[in-house]
Amino acid sequence: MRKLGQLDWEDLRIFLAIARTGTLTAAAEALKISQPTTGRRLRTLEEACGFVLFQRTSHGFYLTDEGKLIRLHAERMEEEATSLERRLLGAGGTVEGKLRLSASEWFSRLVLTPAIAAFCRENPNVSVELLIESRVVDLERQEADLVFRFPKFESPAIIQKQFTEVTYDLFASQDYIDRTAGLTCDSTLHRLIGMDAQLASLPDAIWLRNLYPNAAYAFCSNGRDLQAEACSAGVGLAVLPTVLGTTLGLVALTAGDGPPRRVIRLGYHADLKRLKRLRALLGFLDTTVPRQM
Predict the structure, then answer these.
(1) Does the structure show a pLDDT above 60 at 78?
(2) Quick one: average pLDDT of 258-287?
(3) Under CATH, to which class is 97-166+263-288 assigned?
(4) What's the whole-number mean pLDDT along residues 118-133?
């Protein structure tokens, strides 16, 4: 077996991609290289190590015992390389370069995009990429520089703060209101629009179900924008961020104390806290986005 110092980091990076995705094709797509190159670099690594690192099956690639050991060390190397890159980025002293942000679709469209557009006009040397993600984005793996989301960030390496508080209302289209005039909250004839099963435990989803215990769900989605469109089409009642429902001209209905509010948090890796373009964007957003909406 060749010495560890002779191993190529690029081969290890490709090895990690295969381990995480399970196939050569998926790893190649993730790394934006060809599948033959992916397979060739894996064979080169296995020859350098002197071991077969994956069991090849018709269902995918599975790590051997030696492959599992290599993965542990390769991931440590990846973490160190990523940390070094972040620290070098954080040393930048000019307001220029690229920033990658991640947030939900409705929040990106109605809140972040107008503010970022104004920021870009004032800072023409900064390029902002805004990703619409429903999954949890990994800041430690540099999938984004700045993330906006409801759940708290668990890693101690992430600097986080409350960004804004979102108010919600119960909305319906005027057509739906006219069609259901006279129905009480316990009627079985009401129709609801809500979250999919994975998000049914959210506070506003529970609030809606408690208010209309006998109503059936006509439409469910994990996207607020899609819920709002269904509500606008007269499908049923929906709990939506107030800014989203009012933008579409939906009618806000008085319903007791109203749905519970939620706080959107922002988070970024501590290694980027001195990155001037990030600090400039954070300061700009702090002065342009209201504390409550």
Answers:
(1) yes
(2) 90
(3) alpha beta
(4) 90
